[in-house]
Amino acid sequence: MGMEIDLMANYPRSKRNVEERGAQKTEADRAVARRFGKEFFDGSRDQGYGGFNYHPRFWEPVIPDFQRHFGLKAGDSVLDIGCAKGFMLYDMMRLIPGINVRGIDVSEYAIEHALPEVKPFVSVGDARKLPFPDKSFDVVISITTIHNLERDECAVALQEVERVARRGAFITLDAYRDDNEKARMEAWNLTAKTMMHVDEWKAFFRQVGYTGDYYWFIP
């Protein structure tokens, strides 16, 4: 199994009113969010981001950590599973000139509204059936995406990451380490269908054969 490492440590963290969101959120909000359409990305905060727009302050500090950890350089290839509008890929292209990027996302809306610079490299796709040959990317990255699947589907998606990655992978998942964090996660969550204790996730990785690196999203 890979390394537990916070490669997202330099991603800006916004202040989250978890309790308020937990009190206001409804099952109808979850159902809308899980369609990953306009409402999720550019609609109300009750159903998603409340406006999903590019700003360099988010990914610029993170890309150098990816670059150092994986030794990324011109000519290397990276796949982003759950790329949304391609913000991470855009900054990766800017900060690592010559890198080859691809992204997939289940959201037709997100791909349609991707940044123009990355549109040639992103497409609608399913993490459970990646449309790429075996070992076709040096590195595969997936940030807060795979947990949006049911547990058995998460296993398939992780095995797909293993199949297409040559050198390494990094994923982040909704998780918790104690009862307080579990309660906060349940209050905050809109889209995740699989949330587990960090030790359960690690056991799951061993069970399904995921050998990449990983870290957690805990609100």
Q: How do the SSEs run, as a string of H and E?
A: HHHHHEHEHEEHEHEHE
For the biggest sheet, the summary is: 7 strands, parallel
Instruction: Give me the CATH architecture, please.
Output: 3-Layer(aba) Sandwich
Cα radius of gyration in angstroms: 17 Å
Structural class, by secondary structure, is alpha/beta
- β-strand percent reads 15-25%
Count of distinct strands: 7
Principal-axes shape call? globular
How far from one another are the termini? Answer: 25 Å
Helix content: 25-40%
By CATH, the topology is Rossmann fold
Name the poorly predicted regions: none
Number of domains: 1
CATH class value: Alpha Beta
On the 0-100 scale, what is the average pLDDT?
94
**Can you tell me the CATH superfamily?**
Vaccinia Virus protein VP39
Our count of helices gives 10
Textual characterization of the structure:
- With 219 residues, the chain is of the alpha/beta class.
- The chain has one domain (56-217): Vaccinia Virus protein VP39 (Rossmann fold).
- The chain contains 10 helices and 7 strands.
- The protein has helices at 18-24, 27-33, 38-42, 56-59, 63-70, 87-95, 108-112, 151-164, 179-188, 198-208; strands at 77-81, 100-105, 122-124, 137-143, 165-176, 196-197, 213-217.
- Helix 1 packs across helix 9.
- The mean pLDDT is 94.
